[in-house]
Input
Amino acid sequence: MSKYTFSALNYLNAGRLYATGAIKLITAGLATETGIGAPAAVGLLGTGLWNIKSAMKAEERGNKMWSDAQKSNDSGWEWKNFNGLLPYGTEYDDPCEPSIFDFWKNKLKNWYDKPVEFFEEIGTML
Output
């Protein structure tokens, strides 16, 4: 499968996350109207916003993979392209980039440098 395929899959994932986030935000808004649902609305609001921010990350990955595919001279098929669907996937989806294990070993040591970005990326898988 080429980078175009995984780019499209990232776009589909982004759409799923946008829809989920929007539903949660609408539900949170409706729950606050009753007054009784206000405490639950806070959780829905938080997770809805997380879904939206994670959708933006998945969409960015899709854009980067599409751009990379257009610049590529080869057939576009590499085993590492599968990594493009994972959090930070564009950082280790090409043969010249670090392995998935090396990347995550370093990322887990330094996740606290950008914790919001880290949780947005993880959110793309949920």
Observations:
- The mean pLDDT is 89.
- The two ends are 23 Å apart (CA to CA).
- The chain has four helices and no strands.
- Residues 23 and 48 are 8 Å apart (CA to CA).
